[in-house]
Amino acid sequence: MEILVIDGQGGKLGRQLVEAILKSHPGVTLTAVGTNSLATENMMKGGAKRIATGENAVIVNSRRADVILGPIGIVLADALLGEISPAMAAAVGQSSAAKILIPMNRCETLIAGVGSQSASALIADALEKLDALLKEPC
Q1: What residues make up the domain containing 66?
Q2: Mean pLDDT of the chain
Q3: Higher pLDDT, 105 or 20
């Protein structure tokens, strides 16, 4: 099972995802891709061994992944203050991978029905969804 974590900006959410995934599923193949070098570096500090940065890395790894995790902005062109290019958003959106998107109400994208949950609570929910996928793939 190929798991891809994508994050941008400072990579804090991505780092938390990487740490939690590697703790709960130490044997998985995890790749972390940052939209910038700071995000990539933070995910590497979280324990990711397979890392890459930039638009082409998002496009290539989205094709290979079985599961993609990241903030909801990774499927929205120009999200994350412009770090998500239209090609990146299309690659993630068109990927056949299962997608677990964290609904962050930031950067001009507000998600109806999502309260002001903490990032920790959102990550815990994302991990529950990943656990379910790893036990019974769609």
Answers
A1: 2-135
A2: 91
A3: 20
CA of residue 23 relative to chain centroid, distance? 16
Q: Which pLDDT value is given to residue 127? A: 87
CATH of the domain at 65: 3.40.50.720
Helix H segments across 1-138?
12-24, 37-45, 55-64, 79-82, 86-94, 119-135
Greatest Cα pair distance, the chain, in angstroms, is 37
Report the interhelical angle of 37-45 vs 12-24 (nearest 10°): 30
Q: 71: which strand partners?
A: 102
SS3 13: helix
pTM of the full predicted structure? 0.90
